[in-house]
Amino acid sequence: MTWLVTGGAGYIGAHVVRAFQDAARRTGDATLEPVVLDDLSSGHRDFVPDDVAFVRASVVDTDAVRAALVEHGVTGVVHLAGFKYAGVSVQRPLHTYEQNVTGTAHLLEAMADAGVGQIVFSSSAAVYGTPDVDVVTEETPTSPESPYGESKLVGEWLLRDQGVATGLRHTSLRYFNVVGSGAPDLYDSSPHNLFPLVLDALTAGRTPRINGTDYPTPDGTCVRDYVHVADLAVSHVAAARALADGRPLAPVYNLGSGDGLSVAQIMTTVAQVTGIDFTPEVAPRRPGDPARIVASGRAAARDLDWVMRHTPEQMVASAWEAHRRPTP
């Protein structure tokens, strides 16, 4: 009896896998042992521990997913596999929908065939679009503004409808701007995320860039939730354990900071932690970037052991350590 982590060779997925391993060792609960399914389109095979079963396959391949579920005695799924680049999704909507909507539908079909009845879904704060409130809650209306955000919302609907049809037990976790590292050998390799962009620039001797300093925020730069990946992973496992124990969960939870940090604050912290003094270059705003997206994490704190355990300095320091680690 195991939990399948789709996308488990990716940055977030690999941290979730290790959080499952830690929980299994700590509690002695063998049902928390993870299995990874990943097509390695953006993941890294060396992110998967040697003692974790690995299946190289895509979630759009129903037969392969079904076989993995049966072979490894899977009782639940944490679904992180997908195409996650909101900006790129505007240029590649069909690919985004195939990976995130069709892939989720095929996964749910395989789960139904194999009798697997519980799933934790990795959703996104992108489902909110540009909210007109300072802090979004689970009751804030959804209004996604990219194919990526739309695909994540449709994924939530698929879980909801499958729950009605088959009794599938599920919850979806919405979050944004996942940063840091829980282990030196796990790093964010995304070409689009703020932390790797800034750290790559510093390593190459370039000056990091801020897109827009004229937003209606205290320092003129965008304000976002920045949450540490290890904290996020703990709550994925907490959600899985709650489903396995039969405890009631809400359909969706925000894993948010409640107050957020600005891009300028992140830049200042990076300079302090790395010891590299720089003044960011100022570039024009990027189209579609809202001034502020910050979510409340109160419901998740109540039900899913959601706690912001890391300071901004610790977020940057852990990311910097992993970024500088030599690759094998």
From TrEMBL:
<keyword id="KW-0520">NAD</keyword>
<keyword id="KW-0119">Carbohydrate metabolism</keyword>
<comment type="similarity">
    <text>Belongs to the NAD(P)-dependent epimerase/dehydratase family.</text>
</comment>
<dbReference type="InterPro" id="IPR005886">
    <property type="entry name" value="UDP_G4E"/>
</dbReference>
<keyword id="KW-0413">Isomerase</keyword>
<dbReference type="GO" id="GO:0003978">
    <property type="term" value="F:UDP-glucose 4-epimerase activity"/>
</dbReference>
<dbReference type="InterPro" id="IPR036291">
    <property type="entry name" value="NAD(P)-bd_dom_sf"/>
</dbReference>
<dbReference type="Pfam" id="PF01370">
    <property type="entry name" value="Epimerase"/>
</dbReference>
<feature type="domain" description="NAD-dependent epimerase/dehydratase">
    <location>
        <begin position="3"/>
        <end position="256"/>
    </location>
</feature>
<protein>
    <recommendedName>
        <fullName>UDP-glucose 4-epimerase</fullName>
        <ecNumber>5.1.3.2</ecNumber>
    </recommendedName>
</protein>
<dbReference type="InterPro" id="IPR001509">
    <property type="entry name" value="Epimerase_deHydtase"/>
</dbReference>
<comment type="pathway">
    <text>Carbohydrate metabolism; galactose metabolism.</text>
</comment>
